[in-house]
Structures are given as C-alpha cells and as structure tokens.
Amino acid sequence: ILFLAALAIQLLPGCAPSPERCRLEQIESIIDEHPDSAMTLLDSVDTAALRSDRDRALYDLLYNLALYKSFNDSLDEHALKHAVDVFSDCGETSLAIRSNYLLGNMYRLSDKIIPAVVTLSQGLELASQSGDRFNEGLCALSLYELYGKAYDSKRQIKYSRQAAEAFQEAGKTDWELYALLYLSSGFINTEQYDSALIVSADILNNKSVYSDSSIMAMASDVMAMSASKTGNIPLAVKSYANAIRYDKGALSNGIFN
Q1: How far apart are CA 83 and CA 117, in angstroms?
Q2: Fewer CB within 10 Å, N or C, the chain?
C-alpha cells in the first residue's frame, strides 16, 4: 500500500504534453518488479485520453505484460500484433521486441507451435541485431520452453545457452542462473551427464545463488542426478541431501521437460 501511495504521488499529472503518457512511462519503469501494482495503476489510466497510436500501443503492451507476469494467459492477440506494428514503425526496437515476446508466448501457451516459433524467433533475431541482451535472453528462454513441448532437447540446449550468455552480458545474474539450470536440464535429457555436472557446479559456486534456496535445491538435484548416472554415488548422496535441505519441493519436477 505504501509503495502504491508513493508511486501515485509521482504519477500525478504534471508532464507535458500528455499526463497519461507520463503515467504509462512510470508504470513501465516498475512493471518488471511489481506487476500487481502496475496492473492496479493501469486500471486507473484514462484510456480515452491517450492521444496517439503509440500511447495506446504502450498501454496495450503494459496491460498484457502485467497479465503475463501475474500468470494470467488471457492475452490480447490483436492488441499485441498492433503493438508490434506500431513500435516497429516508430523505430522503438526494445518495445517491438517485448511485444513479439508476449505475442509469441501467447501462441506458446495456446499450443500454436508454428506461430510461436516464428514470432519468438523474430523477437530473438531483432534483439540480437540491436544488442538488446536482456530481451534476447527472454526470447531465447521462451524458445527453450517451446521446444520442451516438442521434446527437442538439442534445441533446448541451444536456446538455454544463448539465454545464459545474453543475461550474463546484460548483467542479469538471477536470470542467467535460471538459464543455466535450463541448460543443465537439456544436458540431462540428452544424457550428457558430465556437462550437466559442470554446469550445476558453476551455479552452486556462484555467490549470487546463496540467497535463493530454490535455485540451490534444483542445482543440487541436477548434480545428484548426474553424479548418480556417472557412478559417483557419494557425490549423489551428498547432493540429494543438500537439495532436500534447501527445498525438498523443488526436486526433479520443474525444469526437466
């Protein structure tokens, strides 16, 4: 409540030429960390006062992004397609990529595999060409998840590796660690257990992971599975014990698809 109150003060009309545009830009700045608060603020926007196609496209993008981040997959295909066109025409590459990312994930969640591959690949290519490493990583991770539906572990390895490298260059260590977990799952699924051991060790040796027990648990689980497959039973037993100690609910379920 205090966060919303403080932000509401910042969002009071005082920008020229469009107070609502300023409101949207402020919402854009907090939506990745506070999607629920962003949705509350979006509901307060006077959409009738949005003066341009660009402002309306930004509202649609932010609204759909808030839905997606709140695990609501009822995204608006028409609005997102329009946002892709508007931001592409305006030369706002980052927003065009994020619109592609959301549209591709809408297709992925609806099991529309071919449109999802095409749309996410377009976003990935655009992000790579423009040097937008964070959005490149997001699109690559979504392609990883998409190819999990097709049980294509080789492509999962390709895109999780690309995501990890992109997040590293973007300075997004938390995202990088999750991408590395996905990479390790690809190695498990293709029986490359030595590679999975190396990646899981890299994760566990990263100081940034110590504050996230779920990542510690999943990385320990990967190490245990890989050690067991390579005949290192003492390491397997120790790693399973660590995984249970960190978070017993995270074992061998979420990332291996």
Answers
A1: 19
A2: N
